[in-house]
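Hi R.,

As promised, here are both runs. First protein below:
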Amino acid sequence: MRRPLPLSAVSLALPLLLILLLLPSAADAHNITKILAKHPEFSTFNHYLSLTHLAGEINRRLTITVLALDNSAMSALLDKHFSVGTIKNVLSLHVLVDYYGAKKLHQLSKGTTLSSTLFQATGSATGTSGYVNITNLKGGKVGFASEDNGGDLNSFYVKSVMELPYNISILQISKIITSADAEAPTAAPLSLNLTDILPKQGCKAFYDLLVAAGAAETYQSNIDGGLTVFCPTDAALNAFLPKYKNLTAAHKLSLLLYHGIPIYLSQQMLKSNNGVVNTLATDGGAKYDFTIQTDGEDVKVKTKVVTAMVTATLIDSEPLVVYEIDKVLQPRELFKAVPNSGDEEAPAPKTAAKKKSKAPSPSASDGEEDEADSPIGSDESDGEPADQKSDKDAAFGSDGRRSIAVMMLSLWLGVLLV
């Protein structure tokens, strides 16, 4: 018979398990865009973090410090009429790849330090020009300067905007950190024209639909700010065309816009972005969202109606990426949701099919989709309750994580007390 562990062992194990329970996961990672959206004085800075795709890089980092510029300071930068590429270099100099809270700024060892930045990490910086000098001055004043400007501390700490030790810190500084290297002219980005790209990458059938429905212009206008496109294969489109033809013009447009996300998501970002995302069709009360779910190396795009598999990356040239998928994405705003939808579409029960025979679906689709997927009349809602559980399971939210942690805690305590 096993001897029970002493109470001291239990008391030591319990806090450790509670810590594991409360630890943040990748699903709780910071989002710089959402954080700054709460502070309108940084709206211009926030906009350019998204436009230059620095926001995505910041969000991927586990430890980061953002030196934020208010709208007035950003005006001084924009008055120089730099290209977007140069603005990206300048702003990347304002993102430190280490954690600095307000307290740490005033407790620097020897009163000064050098911190590497995202500009240094890009490899575009020459020598140490991608490092920022941080100096604690007399009277509690803290100055910032790039390493290549001769030590001229031209920008100063204003306030702490948000701190989440030791994950992300957002500190406001008074002026742009100037750097001749960062402000050097950059080559203009290659022109990305969907008319040239999609037909040549195996998406001609999909692109023809975009043009016919008037959606191509919306896709093209979103490229500069970042665009992710999910292109169904020709076989998937051909099987879906009977249903597509029965949609109204407005619904056709919504369906096609539903296949685009207004941000750039590389393959790595896509695999780490498990959860619900908005689309080009998202507008006010019409959600038009879907869930991205990773299963090992496989990436699935799940709506309430179908689950599509990402089968290939057709082009990845930031700020545009196009993925091939094996099914047409059908939003629940336009099609009947499949009850308790899992990884695959649920076939309609035979008894249900008999009941529905009195009101057949507007079109057939060669048997690939069942009657539960037929178009519905409203652009707002299909009238059925949302399957909230599916969202939580797909995104593996904090509630599911806590449930598992509680279960592990119970099992562990049971072992300790036997």
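And here is the second one, sequence first, then its structure tokens:
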Amino acid sequence: MKADVRGIIILNILVATFLFMGAGIFHVLESPNQYGQDHQFHEQINQATLHSLHKNLSISMPKNEFDNLVKNVYKLKINCPSRLSSSYNWSYSGSLYFSASVITTIGYGHMAPSTFAGRMFCIFYALAGIPLCMLTLKVMGDKINELLGSFFIMISTKRQLREGKRTKIKVMSTLAGIALVFLFLGGSLYLSEDWSYFDGVYYCFIALSTIGFGDMVPTKGSAPSSAIQTLEYIIRGLYLVIGLVLVSSLVSSVVSALKVLDGWDCCRRTRCEYK
């Protein structure tokens, strides 16, 4: 086994270990607080509703009383720091999702630690995890570029070999095409979310570009509730990992190709000035 392949395997094992360890710690630190807030929130709504119903049990509720009830319940929902649609945020799977969004710098924003311990741990976790993840993506991306470059050299004629700088441009063009196809294939993975196909493609682009707006989150941030959802969760995770490697490889190839093009321009300018 070559040293570079062994290094890639070791880096991936380190990232996986870091993710699973971080997910466990976030789950321990944040889940009790999450469930406590949800319980308190439901209790507040129940008390407000029961009080109003008890007050108006024997008579019909006037319109202004009903409007006030709705407004009070709405205020409780807005002021509550937790979200009903993501009450399973800090399950282990949700914590794993959050950990991955931190070290990949996607940062969807649909969930965030709310305890002092969770936020403190998040700082150190990100400081260590982001460089480790970026290094792993870069090494894997460079390896893809190297393999593609070797492939183009292998199928090239002698004349093309003399113009070896074109290889980097071919690698960039090939990776751009692969990334585009991969992006549009990803849209089909999210049709079960009741999203349109374009919504799925949009989500994949926002995730793979690490913009991570958080305006669209699969399963609304809740944990998988069935074997099928768990399988989808795994497939989507693998898709994002492969996609991030492709993006890293594409960025690296673009930089290499631009250096080649700039070098050609410099040579041409030098020749013109010489003449």
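A quick note on the second one: Helices lie at 3-55, 63-79, 92-103, 116-154, 158-162, 166-186, 197-208, 227-274. Let me know what you think.

Best,
J.
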